Amino acid sequence: MNITLRQLEVFAAVATHGQVGRAAEALGVSQSAVSMALSDFETLIGERLFDRVSRSVLLNERGRALLPRAIAVVEQAREIELQRGGSPEAGRIRVGASTTIGNYLLPALLGAFARAHPSIIVTLEVANTAEIVSRLSTHAVDVALVEGPVSAFEIERIFWREDELLPFASPSAPPTPVEKMQWIIREPGSGTREVFERAMAQARLPLEVRMELGHTEAVKKAVEAGLGYGCLSKLAVERELELGYLVPVALPGVDLRRDLAILLLRQKYVTSALRLFLDHCRTW
Questions:
Q1: 91-162+260-283: same fold as 5-83?
Q2: CA 135 to CA 157: how far, in whole Å?
Q3: pLDDT < 70 positions in the chain
Q4: Sequential DSSP letters for 79-100
Q5: What is the pLDDT of residues 148-206, one digit of tens each?
Q6: CATH for 163-256, among 1.10.3210.10, 3.30.360.10, 3.40.190.10, 3.40.50.2000?
């Protein structure tokens, strides 16, 4: 068996992108070259690794079992290539972050990391928790930082830091009993929404949803306009509270504390660059 590094790279790219065309674009080669390399690889393995569905390709059980090992080999080879003749810290890291973390914590953290490790290139993808967990599961990002609960066997969840949600309203909002508050909340899949819904249910309080919005800033603006009440991370509303655009609202008996977490795939090969990034997050 003479499996090449290029075949492993093609296999990993097709598995990650889910389409031969997208994998070819990412690798900078033709679709025919990708199809040929993938076919040769499956021939060497002795079985199919994908189910072909329309224009997409989906990993089968054998492919899912092989993917982490293939990616580990490719990443080790890339690490050697990047460090050859250069800095021992050289590398690339793909970071996925849920909305609150990506918008309000990571800019300063990544700025400090870039100054400390200028030879490491970091890309950042921000989405809600469910989307980022999906991206991690498909190896589209190397590490994820999220605020929502995650319960997937293949993912290791590492406590990072504490956070707390804060209910808030427009300064012009009239006093309203909790039972009659109408809420403007994040979309399904948001970690913030999941924590808030769970806390309200545990406190046995009704949650009347008036609007679902897909971005933190949209929630704040809608509440500021007097359309309802909101609940987001304290990190997200600090500026508006200081300027008086929003005011905090008390919800006695509702526990809105939560943990922020670092997520890694259990079979993930941790490069030296990724290890430096994880150390930086832990000490930030």
A1: no
A2: 15
A3: 1, 83-89
A4: HHHHHTTS-TT-EEEEEEEEHH
A5: 778 888 999 999 999 999 999 999 999 999 999 999 999 999 999 999 999 999 999 99
A6: 3.40.190.10
